[in-house]
Amino acid sequence: MKDISDLISLLGGTGAIARKLGINPSAISNWKKQNKIPKTKYEAISKLSLDLNINIEEYLFPNDYKGSKFSILLIICGGIASYKSLEIIRLIKKNNIELDVVMTKSAQKFLTPLLVTSLNEKKCYTDLFSIEDEANMNHITLARKADIILVAPATANIMGKFANGIADDLASTILLATFSTVFLAPSMNPVMWENLATQENYHKLLDRGIKFIEPESGDMACGEFGTGRLPEPKHIIDEIVNNLNYKKKIQKQFNNVSVVITAGPTIENIDPVRFISNKSSGKQGYAIASELSNRGADVTVISGPVDIPPPKCNKLIKITSAQEMYDKTISILPADIVICSAAVADWRLIPEINNNHSLNTKHKIKKSNHNLRFTTLKNPDILETISKSKRRPKLIVGFSAETENIIENAKSKLISKKLDLILANDVSQNKVFGKDTNKVYVLTNNNCEEWSEQSKKSVASNLANKINEMFFS
Ligand code: C5P
User: Fold this and answer.
1) Whose CA is nearest to atom 17 of ligand 1?
2) How many domains does the chain have?
3) Which domain holds residue 308?
4) What's the gap in Å between 457 CA and the centre of ligand 1?
5) Is residue 154 in some structural domain?
6) Per-residue pLDDT reduced to its tens digit, 235-279
7) Ligand 1: centre distance to CA 171 (Å)
8) Which 3-state string (H, E, C) describes the chain?
């Protein structure tokens, strides 16, 4: 959003404007503080800008998204607060943001799709199995098209479905199929909100990076008092617009910047049925890939075998072993930024029996009375090779999964592998692998920051901010 303080300076400063408009300078200081000019002064301000080459609209109508590509998908669930969704639709349209609306079956008991269609001047979607809708705008397109999905009101039911992966109607299927920022604005009876099941679902979703517009406390329509009331539509839309403004600010941050990210574990086969690997889920690396893609970077991900949905990226290359990850990564360089988040197996194992008698590993090794021994063969270090290569990328980020002396070990890797940045975490007692949250220390050559435990998506977003500072400095 354009800063009103900048506009004031462009127009000659607080004193000059106060004099020309015949108002107190403190009023103008207030405009600057609130980053807003009262509507009654628009005309006078426009006149002041006449001879100057200033696009005043950008300052006075910062939330007008006409012509921008931003779009919202509003999911209306069935609750007593469903009627407030009509005002939400009106406010979204007033901001000129493109809108699609999905209604659950129970929402249609409170509002009709016809009413919503007339308000939004666009078809309202209700059915997962509609042949006509699937042909025009299928559920995956609906899930992927929006920058923001807003569920308002969000019932205990949709929270339960979303938290537990149930996709039995259009709304819940979209929620599982989206990469977009999802906001839930819960509204329900206070006892339902406080219920352990709802609270568990709420925390599960929070940990996965889902955003909440918290329910308010007060008298409820059902006659009870407590927390569970849907906030006013204006408050909901302010939060959404703030998020869109933030997206607008960062969406081109990494335009024309190429990023290569390694993610997940590698698998080192011993024979056709046995292997060694590690517990990396790939979630952190994938979250970083999606975040940088959302910020305009050209992202290639080289991923070991994982069980999670693909990230948003330009290219996803799947590999199995460390040697394959090395070969593929080296083959797609040069890149501007390389982020090695993969947990690469340091060795592969060569089985042998009776002192150096190696085995044919093309077939499954047969059980015998001999003890099986392994010699280790060191895998190439992808990160170190790239960092010490002649065509070194401008920025190299490594990860350091440790079970003891976290910071000291990470620091020595940062130095020995000549990295710009390293993220260290404590992976003892299954604290990180496979989880949706991460607690990291972020080290550069002269600094060490401790970031509080947060969702892996949030770590990705903070890392992108950090990379932005370092890459463009
Ligand atoms: O030395 P260590 O393996 O603990 O370093 C971890 C960092 O090095 C991670 O960023 C990991 O992705 C990277 N690495 C690599 N190739 C290897 C081993 C680790 O790129 N063979």
Assistant:
1) 381
2) 3
3) 258-471
4) 21
5) yes
6) 999 999 999 988 888 989 999 999 999 999 999 999 999 999 999
7) 41
8) CCCHHHHHHHCCCHHHHHHHHCCCHHHHHHHHHHCCCCHHHHHHHHHHCCCCCCCCHHHHCCCCCCCCCCEEEEEECCCHHHHHHHHHHHHHHHCCCEEEEEECCCHHHHCCHHHHHHHHCCCEECCCCCHHHHHHCCHHHHHHHCCEEEEEEECHHHHHHHHHCCCCCHHHHHHHHCCCEEEEEECCCHHHHHCHHHHHHHHHHHHCCCEECCCEEEECCCCCEEEEECCCHHHHHHHHHHHHHHHHHHCCCCCCCEEEEEECECCEECCCCCEECCCCCCHHHHHHHHHHHHCCCEEEEEECCCCCCCCCCCEEEECCCHHHHHHHHHHHCCCCEEEECCECCCEEEEEEECCCEECCCCCCCCCCCCCEEEEEEECCCHHHHHHCCCCCCCEEEEEEEECCCHHHHHHHHHHHCCCCEEEEEECHHHCCCCCCEECEEEEECCEEEECCCEEHHHHHHHHHHHHHHHHCC
